[in-house]
Automatic annotation (TrEMBL):
CDD domains the record matches: PMH
One cellular component (GO) term of this entry: cytoplasm
Keywords: Hydrolase, Metal-binding
Ranges for domain Sulfatase N-terminal: 6-389
Protein name: Sulfatase N-terminal domain-containing protein
One Gene Ontology MF term: sulfuric ester hydrolase activity
Organism, scientific name: marine metagenome
Amino acid sequence: MRKKHKNILFITADQWRGDCLGCIGHPVVKTPNLDQLAKQGVLFRKHYTQTVPCGPSRASLFTGLYAMNHRSVNNGTPLNNRFTNIAREVRKCGYDPTLFGYTDTSADPRKLHQQDPLLSTYEGMIPGMSSGVTLTDNQLPWIADLITKGYDHSLNQYTVFDPILNYPGAKGRGATFAPPVYPDKDSNVAFLTDELLKWLSVREDENWFAHLSYLSPHPPWIAPEKYNNMYDPSEVPKPIRRESLEEEGRQHPLLKMLHELIQRSFFFNDKLIEPAALMSDLDVLQARATYYGLMSQVDHHLGRVFNYLKKSGQYESTLIIFTSDHGEQLGDHYSFGKYGYFDQSYYIPLIIRSPEIAKQASKKSVGRGTQVELFTEAIDVMPTILDWLETEIPEECDGRSLLPFLQGNIPDNWRTEVHWEYDFREIGSFQPMIEQQFGLSPDQCSLTVLRDEHYKFVHMTALKPLLFDLQKDPEEFINRADDPGYQDIMLKYAQKMLSWQMLHRDRTLVNMNMESGNLVNWKGPRILNKVGE
C-alpha cells in the first residue's frame, strides 16, 4: 500500500495581472485549466503583492515579510541572510525544494568573497532552494535545447526573442504581433514544463516540493504562433486612462516622471528608446492581445502538468498554488510595467487547491469552488504552506495562514485593508533621474499604500501624498489629498498606516523574557482584538 504523500506545486507566472483570469470574469482572456483549478479549490479575488518589481516582490512572497522588514527593495538589493524563507522552512520538514525557473534573489554580500559570482547578478536563487533548471535572463538552458534541436547556433538571450521579419498577416496589427521563429512546443514555457515533468516522473514514491516559475507573461511580449493570433486587438478592452498623457501626468509629479522614464524597448525587444507612454493606440491594443496570448500559452502548459499529476495518481496528494509576483499596468494610466501606486501593478491572482478540499467534493464541501472576497496578501502564501504541512510558522512572519479559508472558515480578526510599498531609488541604474529631478536622497524615494474598499491612501516619504475615493472614483483619476472635504479621512488613514507599521515591526525576540533562569516566550497572533476601529 502506498504511503501517504503531501506534495507541493508552487507556481508563479511573472507579471500576471489579477483580473486576467476567465474565472474572475475577464471578458476576453481564456484560461480553462486555471478556471478548472479554481473550481476545485479556492479563488482569492482581492489578492495583492507587497511591492514591485520582481526581486522585492518575490522576497516578500518567500519570506512572508513586508518590504519595510526584509528591505530588499529593488532588483539587485541584497536579501539579508538572517531571514528564513519557505525553502529553508520546508527543508525542516524533510523536503528538498526544487526550482524550475528563477527567484531573482540578490545574495547577502557580507559573508561572500568579493569575487564570488553570486555578487555579479541580481538573479540568484533563494537560500535553501535546489535547482532543477535555473532559467534566468540569459535563458542558457533553453537556448542550448533549441540549438540541439537544430536552431541557429548564433541564438543568444537577445536574439532568441526576435520576431519573424516580414511576417505575413501583420498588416493592421501592432508591433508585438509577429511570432518568434520557434513554435510553441519549443518555447521557453514548453521547455520549463518539459523539465518539470521529467523531474516528476521519477518522484512518484516520495514527497516533493517543486517551484515552477514561468517568465511569461513578463516582457518581451512575443508569443509563438497560435497564441500571437489568439486575440484580436480590436476586441480587447481599452486601457483605463485620461484623455491625454499630459492630463494624466498632472495627477502627481512622480507619475509624470515615470511616464518619461519607462522605455518602449523593454516590452518590444527593439532598439527604440522612447517612452512607452507614447505608444500608438494600435500598439497598445496589440500589446494587450499579445500579453493575453502569453497567458493562454501558460495556461495550456499548466494543463499538461495537472493532467500528468492526475494520470500518475499524485493530483490528490498535491497542494497546488498559482500566483504571480506582481501585476502589469498594460497601458492603464498611460503606463506599462509595474511601478507607482496604481492597483494594476499590485493586484495579482491567487488560486489554491488542496487535496483535502477535493476529498470533500461529495459532501458539498464549503471550501471547494469558494471565491474569497476578503483582502489577502502575497505574504500569506508562505505561512499557508507551512500551516498545511502542520509545522510551525516563524515568529518573524508578517503574513497569516489562509488555511482556514481552504477549510471553509474565516480567520478571526481578518484584515480589512491591504498594504504595499514602492521604493523608486535608482542605485546603480542607468537612469538615476528621479533623485536628480526631485533633489532627493535614495532613502527619500519611497511610498506606502493603504487600500480598503472605500479609500486608497498613498503616503510618500518626501513628496506630496495622494488620496482616492474608490467609491466615487474607482479608476483613480482624482487625487483628493488637497480637498478640504477629505482632510478628516486623510488623518484617519495616516493614523491607520502608522498603526500598521508599528504592529508589524520585527518581533522575533521581543516577546521573549529571561527571568529566574528561565526563558519565557509568548507566542500568539499579532492581533487579538481590534481596538479603536
